[in-house]
What we know:
The complex is a heterodimer.
Chain A: E1 5-10, E2 12-14, E3 20-22, E4 27-29, E5 35-37, H1 39-55, E6 59-64, H2 70-79, E7 83-87, H3 97-111, E8 114-120, H4 131-139, E9 143-154, E10 158-165, E11 168-175, E12 178-182, H5 194-202, E13 207-209, H6 222-225, E14 228-235, E15 244-246, H7 250-264
Chain B: E1 7-11, E2 13-14, E3 17-18, H1 20-36, E4 40-46, H2 50-54, E5 63-68, H3 77-91, E6 95-99, H4 102-114, E7 119-123, E8 125-128, E9 134-140, E10 145-151, E11 157-161, E12 176-180, E13 191-198, E14 209-213, H5 222-230, E15 234-237, H6 239-243, E16 264-268, H7 274-277, E17 285-290, E18 303-306, H8 309-322
Parallel strand pairs in B: 1-4, 1-6, 4-5, 5-12, 6-11, 7-11, 14-15, 14-16, 16-17, 17-18
Antiparallel strand pairs in B: 2-3, 8-9, 9-10
Amino acid sequence: MGLRNIIVTMKVVPKIEELEFDPETKTIKRGAAGNEINPADKNALELALRIKDRYGGRVIVVSMGPPFWEPYLKLAIAMGADDAILVSDRALAGSDTLPTTLTLSKAIEKIGDYDIILCGEESSDGGTGQVPSGIAEWLDIPHVTFISDVMDVSDDKKAKVKRTIKGGHEVVEVTLPFLAAVELGCNTPRFPDFRRKRWAEREFQLTVWSAADLGLSPDEVGLKGSATTVVDLEEVKPPTRLKKKYTGSAEELADKLAELLKSIM
Amino acid sequence: MGGWKGIWVFIEQDDGVIEESSLEVLSRARVLAEERGEEVTAVLLGEAVAGEAAKLGRHGAHRVILVEDPILKYYTSDPYSRIMARLIEERRPDSLILSATRNGRDLAGRLAVKFRTGLIAHVVSLDYDDEGLLMGKVPGFGGNIMAVVKCVKGRPQMATVTPGIFDIKEFEGEAVVEKVDSGLDPEQVKTRVVDREIKELIDISKSERVVIAGMGTGGRMELVNQLAELIGADIGVTRPLADMGLAPRDIQVGSTGVILKGSLAIVLGASGAPHFVSGIKDMGTVISINKDPEAPIYEYSDHYFVGDIFEILPLLLKKLREG
């Protein structure tokens, strides 16, 4: 059987360890931090490419973000995606889960002809994992979250996916078309092929859609379309700790630690 | 908004066993409901769970909506979300609160879109403001910052609560249990569990002592296991070890994993990433061993041993065994 489109949602995130918070202005200083493709989205793309290798179909990456994400989408092309679309519009800024899932679902509908949609389980910056099942609801298709593999796609339009659960995993049978959220670290994303990378950087034409291209009105998206609002940001102060430092030979340290453990237990 | 009343709590179960963090949420919901003069309804879906439904009053439910069907034995998104959506449409609760387990998050994301409503995800606190808007604190950017988030649109107002944040409480009185038909046509169900493999897991959010392995252990767990066994501790890991598949996420410590609440954490070879340290901030005493004299984890430690875990641990184990 040949699968129809396999669509992968992708986000670019700042590298968390490089972010700084300014407690005075209550803003996050993103400037200093580098960016990367959200790690779980890379696992989703890798899984999509593996599904394509087995069952056919075209892998299309879709993203909602600012124009500077273009090189990251080209990186996805270099990894093996067949096409990439960036939904980019100032009106989308400030969108919470509701308008974000609406926008991505509209983009997916516009791409059309899909059998499988894969998302990363959550983004490393927002990290709530509510987007995948939200997209599935807009599209009115079934979904499965926290999957580590698509084990089988059968001719009767059903797939078996491996889902991580408390203490192990289960196999869920799901009807096509479906959406799945892919677990971070479940596979090793491939490195881009050098030639394809050069082609992607020089020749590949990224498709860019605006909110209007998706038939979205400004009221439906951005802050206006959001159903939650951030009313304050608080810096989390580290708890007061004793901060006693011990140095010395391994023998001395082991002695001190043994004593310490005996005294507090 | 007219007609939207009361707090609902989704009670998760797996093959008849109630998820404990659902009871944490239920207990918190009861406290909030009493402040607001409202009722708490626990919603329980499962195969044969009437016995469990009867016990929910003890943990805060005034009422229980019970739906039993063989298809509901294990959680899967399609039947669960369809039944929940129907119940919400018919009965219009003001708020729906779930535990932020895998299944709770899976269900919440879908229902929030279904009702075009606000969802505050993974909160570590939960309150209502003076206007009755649901309000929660959400750790962001690895736990360095807390965002205070409100639901400003739609009903039911929704939130998922990080497991381990609230305590399970005991309340007087019994809940009124109402049984509702699932209305499911098995032919129409689009997701179903066909196989599963699970092992018993220790819930480390309840552990008094936890030995935590970081990247500095290289995932070699023999010494870690021995130390844990000697001092009667359970084992946790940092996120990179879970990312690499060396340990299940269920024992990952930090803002995207488990928040520890016990008395002693021994942190082995973890640098102290922001998302990790939020998982140990409530531990009574934190002891760390790290090669790097200046690793960020120092700031979060009571006792900081600068050295090689693979040299120190064998000696430590020997001394502890000798008494």
